[in-house]
Every structure is written in structure tokens, then in C-alpha cells.
Recover the amino acids of this structure.
């Protein structure tokens, strides 16, 4: 006689003893399937590895049932008092504390993880729903002066393959306001020079149109039409 096992439902499964390490792997797989950028996936994974290391160091359990709001708050306090480059093998003298914006980013990663736990049914409530990232001072970005830009460009020889390429990159970077990752990810087919715009794949795999000025157009045209045909290694 064959005994059939019970067709258990998700709600009946015991989930509160799942360790953080296993949940973090599931979260990473989810983010990959959702098409999150490699940088975002790596950052979330790094934060969760560090969180797990903190829990083990302090003697806390890493089981899901024990990942409470109080434990997360203690972790935040630890981050706020942690020295930069702590235990770094090549920097023997740590600097000041972690920047407030860095602590904010840790908290945002944890909030994303706990929101996912709730959405996927691992927890009945999102225990970090009311947790706000600590405040960080908002600093104005200091832009380069015309003199500083000139000092950068004078170091580049626009009459060589590498110099023409670097000049085009610097001018496009300053003119368009692209992220560095967006700039280095540009392809020739993304540059619509006659129309004066670039097609950029940004964060979250979202495509957008970025206009460029005459100076950037000229620098790009000079490189593409005269030097691009000559491979540079």
C-alpha cells in the first residue's frame, strides 16, 4: 500500500527557523530574476552578509524568527559607531565613523530585504515598515569651474586615438550628467550625433534619451569618424 504524503500549503510550512544565509540566497535569486542591476544585487548581498556577520559576532541567532526590529536597531547603532576601514588589511589606522549617507544605504538595503520577506509570505508583517533611515546632511554638489575643466582637457592629446577617445568621454560626461556606469556602457549605436542625443540604459534597465550640446557632439564625431576605425588597445 502506497502512503501519499500530505499536499501541504505554503501557509502550513514552518518558515521561522530558516537561517538568514538561506533567505539571502533566495533574495539574490529573486533580484536577478527581476532584472536588478548587478551593482544593486551585489550591494544587497554584501549588506546581508555583513548583517549576518554582526549577528554571529554578537552571539545572536540568524533564524528568521529572531530577526526583530530591536536587533536591526542595534545593528544601526553599531554602524553609526563603527570606524571606517575597520579591520582592513591594508589600512592600519582607521579614519572616522561611517558617513551618515553610508548608514542610510545599509538601512535601505535591509528595508528592501524585509519588504521582500513580507511580500513573499515569509513573515506576517513587515517589521521594518515604520523604520526610517537616519538623517544625513544634504550637501550641494560642487561643480567644476571652467578653469578646472580646462586643466583636465589640456592633459589630453585630442590628436591621438586614445586622447580623442578620452576627450570625447570627459566632455560628454560633463555635458550630459550621465552616471559613470552609463557612460562606459554606451555603444556606437546609442549615439545619435546628428540629432544631438544619446540613448542611455540607466538604473533598473530603464532606457532614456539624453540630449548633448554642440561641444560634446563635435568631440564624439571627431573620435567616431576619424579614430574609431583604428582599434585602440
Amino acid at each position: 500500500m502506497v502512503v501519499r504524503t500530505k499536499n501541504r500549503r505554503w501557509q502550513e510550512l514552518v518558515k521561522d527557523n530558516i537561517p538568514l544565509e538561506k533567505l539571502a540566497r533566495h533574495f539574490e535569486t529573486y533580484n536577478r530574476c527581476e532584472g536588478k542591476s548587478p551593482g544593486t544585487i551585489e550591494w544587497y548581498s554584501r549588506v546581508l552578509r555583513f548583517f549576518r556577520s554582526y549577528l554571529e559576532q554578537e552571539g545572536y541567532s540568524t533564524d528568521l524568527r529572531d530577526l526583530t526590529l530591536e536587533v536591526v536597531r542595534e545593528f544601526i547603532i553599531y554602524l553609526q559607531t563603527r570606524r571606517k576601514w575597520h579591520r582592513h588589511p591594508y589600512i592600519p589606522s582607521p579614519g572616522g565613523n561611517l558617513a551618515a549617507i553610508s548608514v542610510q544605504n545599509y538601512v535601505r538595503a535591509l528595508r528592501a530585504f524585509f519588504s521582500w520577506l513580507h511580500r513573499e509570505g515569509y513573515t506576517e508583517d513587515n517589521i521594518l515598515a515604520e523604520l526610517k533611515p537616519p538623517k544625513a546632511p544634504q550637501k550641494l554638489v560642487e561643480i567644476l569651474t571652467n578653469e578646472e575643466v580646462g586643466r583636465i582637457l589640456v592633459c589630453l592629446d585630442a590628436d591621438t586615438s586614445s586622447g580623442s577617445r578620452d576627450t570625447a568621454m570627459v566632455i560628454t560626461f560633463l555635458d550630459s550628467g550621465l552616471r559613470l556606469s552609463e557612460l562606459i556602457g554606451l555603444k556606437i549605436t546609442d549615439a545619435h550625433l546628428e540629432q544631438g542625443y544619446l540613448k542611455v540604459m540607466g538604473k533598473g534597465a530603464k532606457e532614456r534619451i539624453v540630449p548633448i550640446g554642440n561641444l560634446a557632439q563635435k568631440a564624439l564625431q571627431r573620435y567616431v569618424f576619424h579614430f574609431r576605425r583604428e582599434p585602440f588597445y
Notes: The chain has eight helices and three strands.
